[in-house]
Predict the 3D structure of the following.
Amino acid sequence: MRSRFGSSIIALLTLTAPVVAQAQNIESVTSLVSSLVNYAIGILIGVGIIAFFIGLIKYLWSNNGDDKSKGAKIMVWGILALFVMLSIFGLVRLLQNTFGVGGGNLQQVGGAPSIGGIKIQQR
């Protein structure tokens, strides 16, 4: 099990090496990493929602107490997963805004200032 996990990590790093090597500067690498993290968080939030609804369906369609408790446990784990992933999503967004990296949120240096996308002309 452990060697399979290590092999998977090595394969993933090998497959992503050309993408990182093709990057022009550190901003493009951080932008790539932050976009991958954002996609992964979105997928895991979806998995948590699906787990909650699977538990809900098991809970509602079960006849005996054992199946109801299994459905309730799945619902609790789904809610817990949602809470953890939304907390991580908030922390990632906070760090992205703090350091000025992310999906198109790079801070502008120089140029005309803008408010809400409207350029302000300086005289």
